[in-house]
Design brief:
The protein is of the alpha+beta class. The chain folds into 2 domains: about 5-20 and about 130-210, Translation Initiation Factor IF3, CATH 3.30.110; about 20-125, Protein of unknown function (DUF541), domain 2 (Alpha-Beta Plaits, 2-Layer Sandwich), CATH 3.30.70. About 25% of the residues lie in helices and about 45% in strands.
Length: about 220
């Protein structure tokens, strides 16, 4: 009779923290004008002005991308008239990657100033230009978590860990990733941005053989 191999399956999780070196900011332009052509032209000028300022501050072309170009009628309701067109709205979105996080607040302030009242800031995201090193640390932490758990269960079962049968990297649940700290600086037109630290999670599933002690 063939003996069935005994195994133990454990899931380990871990995180690694580091100071972000990349900030991605979403800068929107929204222009309301009476004429559709005027709205479209105004949005184009505002976007071009913002892009020019970004380039003046060292942001390269690959780090500036346009998306979400839209032109629509601005419809309002008037008593006795129903829905009427009050004008037109042209909007676009710039996704900008800033690689100097410490100087990002000044660059954003200049970009907002270039677009004037038509600018909309739609949030920012802190991350890593090359997340490989941080991710590797998170995987290592997840491995040690799985190993410690497996050893404990093996001891409780009166056995020892044998060789690894399989290792699977699993999708990690989002960890507590701090949002950029933003504080208004006194007597300035910019908003200070503190990078803080961001967490990168990792989860690994490992299967070990179980063997009798001393075998």
């Amino acid at each position: 009779m063939t003996e069935i191999a005994r195994t133990i399956t454990v899931t380990g999780s871990g995180t690694a923290e580091a100071v972000p070196d990349l900030l991605t900011v979403s800068i929107g332009v929204e222009c309301r004008r009476e004429d559709v052509g005027a709205a479209y032209a105004a949005a184009g000028r505002a976007s071009a002005g913002i892009s020019a300022v970004l380039r003046e501050h060292g942001v390269s072309d690959p780090d500036i991308s346009t998306s979400g170009l839209n032109v629509r009628a601005d419809v309002v309701w008037k008593e006795g008239e129903g829905q009427t067109v009050a004008g037109y709205v042209a909007s676009s979105m710039l996704a900008v990657r800033l690689r100097d996080v410490s100087g990002a607040s000044e660059v954003i302030a200049k970009a907002v100033g270039a677009g004037g009242n038509d600018v909309r800031l739609n949030g920012l995201d802190l991350g890593f230009a090359d997340p490989a090193a941080v991710t590797a640390e998170a995987r290592e932490a997840a491995w040690h978590d799985a190993l410690a758990t497996a050893r404990q269960f093996a001891t409780l079962a009166g056995a020892e860990l044998g060789p690894v049968v399989s290792v699977t990297q699993q999708p990690a649940a989002p960890g507590p990733i701090p949002v950029a700290k933003m504080q208004r600086a006194m007597a300035t037109d910019s908003v200070g941005i503190e990078a803080g630290q961001s967490s990168v999670p990792a989860t690994v599933g490992v299967v070990w053989e179980l063997r009798a002690p001393g075998s």
